[in-house]
Amino acid sequence: MVRKPCCNKAEVRRGAWAIEEDMLLTEYVGKHGEGKWRALPVNAGLRRCGKSCRLRWFNYLRPGIKRGNVSVEEEDLIIELHKKFGSKWSQIAEHLPGRTDNEIKNHWNTTIKRKLLMDGTKFNIWPKCKKPRVTVMAESNIINTCTEIPLSDDPKSEKENYNHEDIWATLLQDLGLEPKDQMQNLLDTVNGDEMRRGETSLSTPSAEWEGKNSSSTTDSDSFFYDIDEEIWDLDIGISTFNSEPEDDPEDNLEWFNWFNFNGVLK
DNA sequence: AATAGAGTCAACCGCATTACA
DNA sequence: TTGTAATGCGGTTGACTCTAT
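^ inputs. structure came back:
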């Protein structure tokens, strides 16, 4: 069944709003109030889709809209609220007077997310646990969990451990994701080929990295495993490392840099 | 000064939910 | 109770701006 379009696309204007259009919309809503968006364009003399009018009003023209840079306090609040609500931008916006859900969403996607990646300790996104930390990284998603995976001193035997189906099942369970196909949707853009380069150890991420950066990237507590060929076929990258982020804040930045350098992150 | 790439943000799209006849 | 229209929402796109080379 085909969804009926909300308006005739050939007849409506699209793209940036002109000042005259803003004036017409503001005047109309000022007289008649919000609502009846479908009928509004005709009544107000606008060649726009009703949805477009509503969006323009709520995100730009509505009185009380706060424009300009997001303050540090607002940013902290957004981070707190995102922990609580997730990507429920309208709910988050309710707690930030004058800010729109669209603005908060944009700010999160362009600014906050990157800051969180660069300094997970500062923003407290890393789980505080002494177990090995398992991080699944995709272009736009990061999920952290603490999974009980036995670590041994022998990288070879450890790799065998990681190849076991049960480990994979435990990991997915901890992440709250059971079937593999769910993971595929979430993570299908990860650059697995680049990560596979690390294979059994990330002591020295890559020769290229060393060449581009003068500082040492040695991290003797880090391991990187090709968990399962089938999983890699889904383009999923999983790294485990047992160093404590609180103990070594540089570690987070180093990992971020490595992922970023290898094109795993957007 | 020109160009490419990255960052930003307004606007669009389509699905989900709500309202109403 | 059901079907349809209206509205709300989150993800995505693309144009514009900024910055580095």
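The longest strand of chain A covers residues 133-137. Residues 67-127 of chain A form a domain with the Arc Repressor Mutant, subunit A fold (CATH 1.10.10.60).
thumbs up if we can close this ticket
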